[in-house]
Amino acid sequence: MTSGTASVADSLRRALDRMTPNERRAAHRLLADYPLAGLDTTARFGEAAGVSAPTVLRMVAKLGFPSYGAFQDALKAELAARAAPPLTKGLAGAAAGDDLLAAFTAAAAANLAETMANLPRAEFAAAAHLLADPRRPLHLLGGRFTDPLAEYMAAHLRVLRPQVRRMTGQPEAWRDRLLDVGRRDVLLIFDIRRYSRDLLALAERAAERGASIVLMTDQWLSPISKVAKHVLPAHVVVPSVWDSSAALMAVAEALVAAVVAERGEAARDRLAALERLRGEA
Question: Is residue 108 part of a domain?
Fold first, then answer.
């Protein structure tokens, strides 16, 4: 069974190497339509994944759940957490008496540890490879509280490679930008609970046009995960009415470091050119 703040998706990714090929098919089906696929009956879940109902049950058992019902209860709890409004979060921790700074620090540190422990290395490497490719136009944007992370990454990435663009302004303006988005384009999107319908609509339309979506999200997975090529989840819960972006920022900075490493001499040449421009200013 999942432990601490780990989601079912976290446990699923950790268990993939221990699964049979058919169990992995069921696991990938769940991740492709998370968490709704797991709320169906075992027969329908298995049919959608192309495996038998007993295979679904064996996959669930490898996650540590004593029954399919307990597995579904965990998914239902995650659905409720996804939709939790700010007023239901963190009030007990903020209420008096305790050392809030210590509690917040401990929660943020735990988020970082859980995120890095559960982040799929192959997924991270593949996302970094996409972001490093100078032939692929890169567009970055985020939600109400995560858009500054997109701006932060864009500021670094445009130094390291060409064709880095920010999508800003109203959603109507995003749709205008889609006119020039095609199979070579990459969208890096930040989206955590409560998830943005506008970002979902944009991601779906960009995917329809052949663009590759890299999603940075929370442990419950934004609905954008259904159309994303790569999904990088981070843990966000702290004793506050708002979620923390600390672990998301760490993953963002790790991606920038990975792009520097992959670009190698080309990145150093651009950095040197920028320093020369600054010296001339």
Answer: no
As to burial, measured by CB atoms within 10 angstroms (0-12 exposed, 13-18 middle, 19+ buried), residue 153 is buried
| CATH number, residue 143 | 3.40.50.10490
* 90 conformational bin, left if phi > 0, alpha if psi -120 to 50, beta if neither: left
* Section 210-217 average pLDDT: 97
Point out the domain boundary residue: 82, 103, 123: 82
Average pLDDT over residues 257-278: 95
- CA–CA distance from 208 to each of 34, 202, 265 (Å)? 20, 10, 35
Domain that holds residue 155: 113-280
Write the single-letter amino acid at 137: P
CA–CA separation, 246 and 249 (whole Å):
5
pLDDT at 80: 86
* 196: DSSP letter: P
Q: Does residue 117 share a domain with residue 69?
A: no
Half-sphere exposure of residue 169, counting CA atoms within 13 Å on the CB side? Answer: 9
Mark whether 231 and 125 lie in a shared domain. yes
Q: Which of 143, 268, 138, 148 lies closest to 212, judged by CA?
A: 138
130, 64: one domain: no
Is there a cis peptide before residue 120, judged by omega within 30 degrees of 0? no
Tens digits of residue pLDDT in 238-255: 999 899 999 999 999 999
| Domain harbouring 51, CATH code | 1.10.10.10
Is the distance from CB of 112 to CB of 237 less than 8 angstroms?
A: no
